[in-house]
Every structure is written in structure tokens, then in C-alpha cells.
Amino acid sequence: MTRPITAGIDGTEESLAALHWAAREAVRRGLPLRVVHAWTFEPGGAVETGDRATQEQWVRDSVDEAARTVRDRHAELSVSTDVHEGDAVETLTALAAESEMLVLGSRGHGRIIGFLVGSVGQQVIVGARRPIVFVRAGDRASQEVAGHEIVVGQQGDPEDSAAALGFAFETAARRGATVRAVRAWALPPVFAYSPSSLQLLDEAGGLEPFEQKALAAALAPWRERYPDVHVVEHVEMGSAGQVLLSVSGTAQLMVVGRRARRTAVGTRIGSVAYGVLHHADCPVAVVPPA
């Protein structure tokens, strides 16, 4: 079964940028594009009349118009539309499960955090079983140029980042781009050292060489699978979020794994994904574990 790339739109500038990003990616991957909108009836809201049928028609017309714009730009692309009345989180999470990826708009950083990342988007990330890509307003095809990299964060053991690395390598292969694999490290507290860990560090020649070997081991199977993809191994001391953001300025796309945690006020995404989503200067893909 061929999975489409799904773009969720809501009429904002950010969601339309996401739509065009999704269309370009669908063309690269030879996949169909599905344009979706989840809406709820708002008496006297979006249109002059409070009639449900009129509002639904207004929504459908808007979605059809958005689909026409990408068909005009990409004649070879198969485009379908899907309008759902109901909760946006439930709708988008369900549609993501049927998709190669879900692409949404993001307002990024600023005094007001975009509602997609702040509420709807964060909840979709937590529940989705497929990659979610967030795109800001102003994203342009010209930003996807040769020399700009696919940046991916790697941490832990090889299997911990396998899904994110796989997504990054496949995307880079489709674009002819370089993968910059980033592994950040910090000095552990004294009590974290144990005789066995000290022996591993001693055998590796120290902390940084140990981290470099760990990154190389995680990348090995993906280098073998994608031999034509150029790879830059980036190991740096610092917090993962800060190190990733420091290289986002020349990235076509940043890829991070998803780590969700439960709190007293609900499930939240990890701090690295949260920080990158709000401050990266490029689209961000959040990839759930395989």
C-alpha cells in the first residue's frame, strides 16, 4: 500500500508553506499528496452566516483552492483532498498513521507560540506513529539548495536513534544532500562513573573519542545502506538542543527523535525536540521510535 504525504492546512500562512513543502517532498519521493483540514462548526464565526452547511462549503472551497495551487506547480503530482469535522488532534493523529509523513505549519519562536506546536502539534507528535514535519511561513524551495545539509541528532545506543537516522538518510538520498549527524555530550557527574564505565572510557581514549566511536557505530548501517550519501560526523560538548540549533542556519531540514514523557499535566515531548521546534531556522522532522 502506497502511503501519501499528508499536509494539514488551516488557512494560515504557515500551513500553506507546509503544503508547498509537502508537495515538493511528494514529488521527490514519487508519492501522492493528501491535503486535509479538520474543522469544527462555529456559529457566526469564520463566515458571515452561522449555517453549518455554508461553513462546511467554505472550508471545502478553501481546501480545493489550496490543492489547485500545488497541482498548478506540480502537474505530475497526484493530489487529493480530505475535510473532516471534528477534533483536530484526533483527526491529524489518525491520518498520520496512514501517511508516509504528516506536514504541519509552525509559527516557531516569538512572544506567541504557534498553536500547532503549542497544543495541537505537540499532542499530535506524542500520539503519532509516523514522522511529523513542521514548516514555518516563508519556507521556500530556494532554501533546499546543494550544500545545505540534512541535520540529524543522534544520542544513546544505535537503536535509540535508528528511526531518525533512517529518515535523515532517505531524505538526503532523495535530495542529493549531505547528512550532518550530531552527537552532543556533557561531562557526567562524578557519581555516574562506575568501574565498568571508566574502563570503557579508558579503552576509547577519553570522553570525546568515546562519543565519536559511539556516533560512528550508530551511522555504520546507514552508510552501508546509502553509500552515495556524504556524511559529516559532528561531535561537540554541550546540550543537544544548543548544539543542534548552532548548525540549523544552513540546514535544509533538521531531524530529531521523539521522546515523550508523562507529567502531572499530561504527556510532553522531550526538551530537545521542544527547543528545536521553536527555535530552528529550518523545517523540523520529529520521528517516533521504530
Automatic annotation (TrEMBL):
<dbReference type="InterPro" id="IPR006015">
    <property type="entry name" value="Universal_stress_UspA"/>
</dbReference>
<dbReference type="Pfam" id="PF00582">
    <property type="entry name" value="Usp"/>
</dbReference>
<dbReference type="InterPro" id="IPR006016">
    <property type="entry name" value="UspA"/>
</dbReference>
<protein>
    <submittedName>
        <fullName>Universal stress protein</fullName>
    </submittedName>
</protein>
<comment type="similarity">
    <text>Belongs to the universal stress protein A family.</text>
</comment>
<feature type="domain" description="UspA">
    <location>
        <begin position="150"/>
        <end position="288"/>
    </location>
</feature>
<feature type="domain" description="UspA">
    <location>
        <begin position="1"/>
        <end position="136"/>
    </location>
</feature>
<dbReference type="InterPro" id="IPR014729">
    <property type="entry name" value="Rossmann-like_a/b/a_fold"/>
</dbReference>
